[in-house]
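Appendix B. Extra example for self-study. Work through it before the problem class; the solution is given directly after the inputs so you can check yourself.
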Amino acid sequence: MSASTVTVPAVGAPARDRTDRTGWWKVVPFVVIALVAVVGPFLLPYDPTRVVASASVPPGGDHWFGTDSAGLDVFSRVVAATRLNLLIAGLVTVLATLIGALVGILIGMNESRRGPLGLAARGLSRLVDLADAVPAIVLGLVVISFFGATAPTIVVCLAVILSPIQIRLIRTEVLRVRAEAYLDAARIAGVGEARLTFRHVMPNSVSAAWENTSVVFAVSIIVTAALGFVGVGMPPPTPEWGAMLSRGAPDAVAGRWWSATFPAAALALAVGAFALAASEVLRRRRR
Amino acid sequence: MVRQRWWATRVAMLPAHLLVFVVLTFILVRAMPGDPVLVLLGQNYTPQAYAALQADLGLAGSLPEQLVGYVVNLVQLDLGQSLMTGREVVAEFAQRLPGTLELAMCALAISALVSCLVAYVVVLHPRNPVSATVRAYARAAGAIPEYVLAVAGLIVFYAALGWAPAPVGRLDIQILPPPRVTGFPLLDAVLAGNVEAAGSIVSHLVLPVGVMVLAQSALLIKLWVAGLEDAIDDPVTRFRVASGASRAAVVLSVYRRAAPPVITMTGTLFGYLVGGAVVMEGLFGFNGMGQYAVDAVNSGDFIALQGFLLVVAAMSLVVFLVVDIVNMLVDPRRRPGVRVEES
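Solution. C-alpha cells for the complete assembly:
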C-alpha cells in the first residue's frame, strides 16, 4: 500500500521574533469565531431548540437570519452550533494527535526489532495504512451508527479514524530521531528505555504532527458536519451545522436560501479562519 | 516468471489486505454495545426465536466458529440479508453500486484531466494571470467541502438561474430509463443509443460532478505544480533540451518524472470522491450506495452497514492496487527488489 505521506521539514528550536508585527490580523477571524463559541450561547435572542416563530420567515429585524422550515431561529442555531462543532473538532484533533504520538512512537521504536514485538509493530503499521485507505466519512458513518451518535462516541470514533495521518507522521520522525547520537549518549549514561522514549524521542518527533493539527482540525470539522449532513450525527434538534445544512437544502432548492446558506457560510468561515490563523502561527514558530 | 514478479506479488497481497478488513468488520459488529438479537426480537422474545435468529445472523457459537462461518459466506459472495428489507445485501449493492461508482469515476477522470491541463499552464506560463488565480485556489485545497458547494450550486444554478435540472434523480421523470446492461446509468444509455436519456443523465450529473471537481481537484493541482516545477529544473530536463529533443518529448518526460506522487494522490482522491458521493447522493435524489447506507443507519441495519463498509474497503484496496501498479509501470525504480538511494 502506498499512501501519500506529508513530509514537513523538521523545525529547530523556535526562535520568536517579538518585533514582528506583520500578519497578526490573520489570527483575528479565528479568535472572533472562538469567542462566539464561548460566549455566543449566553447571548442568543431565541432558544435554538424550540419553535419560536412561523416557518420560513425571511431574514429581517426580528430574525436576523430568518427561520427554518420548522420555525426555529436560524441565527440562534448557527451561533449555538459553533460551540458544538468547534468543541468536537478541537477534541478530535487533540485526541487524534495523542493517539498518533503514542502509537507512532510505539511503532517507530519497535518496528526494527526481532521477535514478536517487532512483528506486532510492523503489523500495526500495515494496519494503520490499510485503515487509512477507506474514506473517513464511510468509516465514520458505519462506526458511529454502531456505537451510537452521542458527542463522546463521535469524538472518540473520529479521533481513531483520523489518527492514521498523525501516526504516520510521528513514526517517520521517530525513525529519524532514533539514529541521533544523543540517544546513544543517553543510553551510555544509563537512561532507561522508557525514560529515553518519553524524555528524548517524543519531544523531538512531535513537531511535524503538531504542525499538521491544522489539517486534522479542518478535516474533523468537515467530517463532523458531513455526518450531520447525511443524518448520522447528533439527533435533532441539536444545533449542528451539517444537520442544519441538510435540513435547509430542500428549502434552498425551493428558493428559500437563508436556512442553508448561513450554516454553510459558518462552516466555510470556521475552516478558512482556522487555516489562516494556523498558517500565521506556524510561520512565526518556524523562524 | 521472475520478470513478472513485481506485479504478481503486489496482486497476491490483495486477499490478505481484504482479510484484514473482514476481521475488522467482524470485530466491530461484535463490539457493538447491547445485544442486537434482543433488540431485533423486542416483544417476540422466546428462547427458541432467540436461538434461531442468533444462528441466522451468524452470532451463534464461539468467536472462531463465527469468524469461519463469516469468511465462508463472504467467499461465496454472501453478505447476508438486510434487516430492513429482507433482501440479499449483495443484490442490493449490485443494483446501487454502479451509479455511485459512475458519479465518483466521472469526478475522478475530470479532476485528473483538469489538474493536468491547469498545472501545465501554471508551470509553463507562470506570468499568465490565470496562473496566479489557480495558485491561490490550490493553496485553499479542501477548505470548503463538496456538500457546502453543492447546496450553494443548487441555490444559484437551480433555484435562482434555473440552468440545472431539479435534484430529484438521475433522469428527467418523463424519460424512460435505458435497458439495464452494465448497471452504469450513463453507460447503459450510451450503449442503447438513447441520446435523450444520455443527455438527461449528463445534465443531472453536471452539477454534482462539477462540485466534486471544484472541491477536490485543488489537491492534485498542488501536487502537479510542485512536482513539475522540481522536474523541469532537473539536469535530466536540460540534457533532453540540449540533446535536441522536441518540446513535446521534453514535456512528456517532465510529466512522467512528476507523476508518481500525483498518481498516489489520485488513489486517495478516489476515496474522498466516494465519500463525497455518499454524502451528496441524498441531496441530488440519486438512489445509490450512500442513500442505502443512510437508510441502513436509520433503521439500525448492521448487516447492511457491515457489507457497505466491506464493499467500500474492497473498492479502495483495488484502487490502491491499481495505483501501485501504475506507479511501478511509470517509474520502474519503485518495483520491489530495486534499491534506490533515498534523496
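Self-check: Residues 1-15 of chain A have pLDDT under 50 and may be disordered. If your reasoning did not lead you there, revisit section 3.
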